[in-house]
Amino acid sequence: MKTTIFPLTRGLCTLFSNIKHTLSISGASLLLLLCTSANAAPISDMHVFGDSLSDTGALQAIAPSFCPEPPYFDCRFSNGPVWVEHLANDLGVSSNTAYAGGTNWAIGGQRSDQVLNQQLGGYLSSTGGSADVDALYVIWAGGNDFLQNGTSGTYTPNQAAQNIVDSVLELSLAGAMHFLVPNLPIAAPWAFEFNMALASGLDGISSGLNITQFDVFSTFVDISMNPSDYNLSNVSDPCLDETNMTLCTNPDEYLLWDPVHPTAVGHQLIASAALAALAVSEPSIIALFAMTFLLLIRIRRKTLA
């Protein structure tokens, strides 16, 4: 199944408690109903695997000379904290890099095969081969497979998707039960093929597991089609001109920081959408969730502005 058992009291309801004063009575009622609809136990921790979209400072710990320089923020590939940092805060867990004692194994520049063969290997070696059954496992990769392909065609969208599916399988065999697996956003060149293969592969192994397939693609489509709803003025151009190393004057109104990575605001939007996706804990409330999903991430964006 694709639903999760994560607590709305530590997820969606954290967000609700911060924004309920800004909602209409009907909006607050919908959110309150969501908050009281799930029966769940809190997650024990969050383990993250992936690339620069989720990297919270790995290079600072293992290869400081490779950290992106300012105006990039604190060895992140953006101008502020990345999405898993916001999500971890909402869920009451840590997102510190594993290479400095934390639980985030993501490394900027790595491909899906490196996630499977290196990051998961490092995690399982550190635990003696067992995975925490009560933890949330986040796996987001695939973009670098395309970016590093060149003209060789060595990496394919189907193989990249299969690497993610195999990562879920490997962790599940070690005892993991709960997964958050984002797909690729609309800007990714092979997003359609990859996303279809990923969804199909995850559907095929979902029995007995709680897999949340986080649709980043649709989230970015909505943001791109309705930028004003998110207080954005530019959703197509990067704020940072890498050729001249010049910045836009209003980065909080941009979706993209550079041609590949979201701005800090973009990461906040991704985190809000991920939080809403995790909040679905019963099939019977999916319809209600659909009505409140966009409300949540739009209100979250406006309250952070």
TrEMBL record:
It holds the Pfam family Lipase_GDSL. One of its GO terms (molecular function) is carboxylesterase activity. InterPro entries: GDSL, GDSL_Est/Lipase, SGNH_hydro_sf. Keywords: Hydrolase, Membrane, Signal, Transmembrane, Transmembrane helix. Residues 1-40 form the signal peptide. The chain crosses the membrane at residues 269-297. Its EC number is 3.1.1.1. It comes from the Bacteria. The keyword Transmembrane helix applies. The keyword Transferase does not apply. PANTHER family: GDSL LIPASE/ACYLHYDROLASE FAMILY PROTEIN (AFU_ORTHOLOGUE AFUA_4G14700) (PTHR45648), GDSL LIPASE_ACYLHYDROLASE FAMILY PROTEIN (AFU_ORTHOLOGUE AFUA_4G14700) (PTHR45648:SF22). This is Esterase EstA.
